[in-house]
Each structure stands twice: as structure tokens, then as C-alpha cells.
Amino acid sequence: MALAIQALEPRFIEQLAAWHQAEWYHLDESVNESVRRQRLAAHCDTRSLPATYVALLDGELVGSICLVSHDVPDRPQYSPWLSRVFVAEQYRGRGIGKALIDRARVEMRRQGHGALYLVTEDKGPYYARMGWQTIENYKLNNHSVEIMKLPL
Hints:
Blueprint: E1 3-7, H1 13-24, H2 33-41, E2 51-57, E3 60-68, E4 81-87, H3 96-110, E5 115-120, H4 124-128, E6 133-140, E7 143-151
Antiparallel strand pairs: 1-2, 2-3, 3-4, 5-7, 6-7
Helix pairs in contact: 1-2
Keywords: Transferase
GO cellular component, one term: cytoplasm
Domain N-acetyltransferase: 3-152
């Protein structure tokens, strides 16, 4: 099976918006699937932020990773952010998430960034194995999360 990581294409927006809504609706109830589709439409050009990369396994959409300038409104000092790292459940445990993160690291380094940030509810140990460090425990809409940083 061949894994490819590429820029988001409009044909994948509908599926990604549905996946992202199902996975993260509880973190911000003001964001619905329609809003997610609109936001993703601005992520297809990966030369600047925001940008989204997708993972394709033998041409089938299996995951995504978004890169945004800011993901936590009251932490403007942290930028850029990994956001919405997602792999479809049946494809988890195959290294697809790591491949998406590795691609994001390369792209952000190429754009001149020195670090990446992310928010996670429960995947801190996963990210820590890749070198991410918790820099802050934070409340995001009354949900306890970690803010993590990875030097590039």
C-alpha cells in the first residue's frame, strides 16, 4: 500500500469537515460542519497559512493535518500550530499520523518557523514520543488540554 501526503484538494473538504466535526465538536460548539467546510476551503494553498495536508493510502483519503497561525486566541505568542491531526479509525496505528506530522515539520521549517505548537486533550504521550514538550496546561472552553511545543 502506498501512502502519499499532499496538499488538500477541494474534493476532500466534505469528508474532512465531517470527520473533524465528529472528532472535535465538543471543544467549540459554535463551530459546525458548514463552518468547517468554509474554513477548509481556505486551506488548499499550502504556500502559506492556513494550510491542510491529507494522507492518501492507495488514493483513498485516510487522514489530515491542518497548520494555522493561531489556534488558541489568547496565546498569540505561540505560532504556528498543528491543528486537527486526524487519521480515520480503521487506519490508526500504521504511522500515518507521524507521516503527516513529519510533513508539517518540513513545511514549517521551510517557511522559516522555529517551532510548532498544538493542543491535545489526551494524546500528550503520543506527541511526547516524537519530542513534543508540554509547555502549559490550559482550559479550552472548559476542557482541560495541554499546549505542547516542538522545536524545529
